[in-house]
Design goal:
Length: about 100
């Protein structure tokens, strides 16, 4: 959180981006295996309402690294977790536990 000149607390974009990360997206896909872009965006899956460009950046990054796969010929875009993505998601979850 940040404070404005009057001392009021407000959320910054940086805080929102910090909450939405690769681990969050991988965790949602591990729980559901396959989700459409519309379902990934739902607060009940990510725990927040994501900023569209940031979510797309993470999905593109995870697709490029082969942690998730974009299913061909499916509309709307639908993503599925790979074995590599499950391993990475579990690693990130363990890493988070050990640092807290």
């Amino acid at each position: 959180m940040a404070r404005n000149l009057s001392g009021s607390v407000f959320a910054t974009n940086q805080n929102i981006y910090t909450m939405l990360n690769r681990a969050t997206v991988l965790d949602a896909l591990i729980r559901h295996e396959t989700l459409s872009i519309n379902d990934i965006r739902k607060p009940e899956n990510l725990g927040l309402v994501p900023e569209e460009k940031h979510l797309q950046f993470l999905l593109d990054e995870l697709t490029e690294s082969k942690h998730i796969t974009l299913l061909a010929s499916v509309t709307p875009h639908t993503y599925t977790i790979t074995d590599k993505g499950i391993e990475e998601g579990n690693r990130l979850k363990e890493e988070t536990k050990s640092t807290s």
